[in-house]
């Protein structure tokens, strides 16, 4: 946590204070190799910062840098820590939740066959299978064909590439995917939009290329269920 906070803070300070909102009489000159290296680091940090957060107040970021250099910070370390935790764990979560709620409302508005559960899962049953042969507990294993897409329509993972269904234990599925699978029985087919909190959350999934806080679209065919 401390390294992450310091890393994000450093990114923010170094890039934002070179932003357009800061009035400078002239651009600093790169007279030495250290100057050039400093600029290269700034370029790389700037590109990384784009993926961190675009909601920061650039003027206050720079003010924080100046105050820190003068040893006159307005917040204590504890106040700074609490402000950071509130922003990352609550404010940021609320913004993401509001965006996802609106996005999934639009999905349901465009296609009235999609409905939402209390958890936020938005789904459409294309074909109902045999509900007597269905996933009940996390120990059950299933044979499933699926496509996984992000909001842009890019395919992140699919069983269609090797034409072989995946056998997996129900307990290994993200919460929203398991909820969707339970709605159909053997032979069923479902389309489901999974909000991030029911998918891979703030961590994302590097192996699948799922970015943090990402809504996912699953299309699944439940081929078989084996009870445990």
Explain what the structure shows.
The chain has 228 residues and is α+β, with helices and mostly antiparallel strands. The chain has 2 domains: 2-74, no CATH class; 100-226, Chitinase A, domain 3, CATH 3.10.50.40. 38% of the residues lie in helices and 18% in strands. It contains 5 helices and 7 strands, in the order H-H-H-H-E-E-E-E-E-H-E-E. The chain has helices at 2-16, 33-50, 58-70, 77-110, 175-181; strands spanning 115-116, 122-127, 141-149, 155-158, 166-169, 189-194, 216-226. Strands 1, 2, 3, 4, 5, 6 and 7 form a 7-stranded antiparallel sheet that branches. Strand 1 (115-116) and strand 2 (122-127) form a beta hairpin. The radius of gyration is 24 Å and the shape is elongated.
Question: SSE layout and pairings?
Answer:
Layout: H1 2-16, H2 33-50, H3 58-70, H4 77-110, E1 115-116, E2 122-127, E3 141-149, E4 155-158, E5 166-169, H5 175-181, E6 189-194, E7 216-226
Antiparallel strand pairs: 1-2, 2-6, 3-4, 3-5, 3-7, 6-7
Helix pairs in contact: 1-2
Which band does the percent of strand residues land in?
15-25%
Backbone CA Rg: 24 Å
Principal-axis shape equals elongated
Number of strands: 7
- DSSP helical segment count: 5
Task: Name the descriptors.
single chain; alpha+beta; Chitinase A, domain 3; 5 helices; 7 strands; 38% helix; elongated
Concise account of the structure shown:
The chain is an alpha+beta fold and 228 residues long. It is built from five helices and seven strands, in the order ααααβββββαββ. The chain has two domains: 2-74, no CATH class; 100-226, Chitinase A, domain 3 (Roll).
């Amino acid at each position: 946590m401390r390294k992450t906070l310091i890393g994000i803070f450093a990114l923010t300070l170094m890039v934002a204070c070179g932003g357009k909102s800061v009035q400078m009489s002239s651009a600093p000159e790169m007279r030495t190799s250290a100057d050039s290296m400093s600029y290269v680091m700034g370029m790389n940090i700037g590109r990384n910062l784009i993926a961190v957060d675009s909601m920061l107040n650039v003027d206050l970021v720079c003010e924080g840098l100046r105050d820190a250099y003068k040893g006159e910070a307005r917040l204590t370390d504890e106040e700074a820590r609490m402000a950071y935790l509130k922003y990352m764990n609550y404010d940021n979560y609320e913004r993401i939740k509001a965006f996802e709620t609106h996005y999934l409302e639009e999905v349901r508005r465009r296609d009235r066959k999609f409905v939402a559960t209390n958890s936020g899962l938005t789904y459409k049953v294309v074909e109902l299978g045999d509900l007597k042969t269905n996933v009940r507990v996390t120990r059950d294993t299933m044979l499933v064909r699926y496509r996984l897409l992000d909001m842009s329509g890019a395919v992140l993972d699919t069983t269609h590439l090797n034409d072989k269904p995946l056998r997996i234990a129900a307990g290994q599925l993200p919460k929203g995917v398991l909820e969707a699978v339970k709605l159909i029985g053997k032979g069923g087919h479902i389309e489901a939009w999974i909000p991030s909190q029911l998918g891979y959350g703030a961590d994302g999934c590097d192996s699948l290329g799922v970015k943090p806080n990402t809504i996912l679209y699953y299309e699944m065919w439940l081929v078989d269920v084996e009870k445990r």
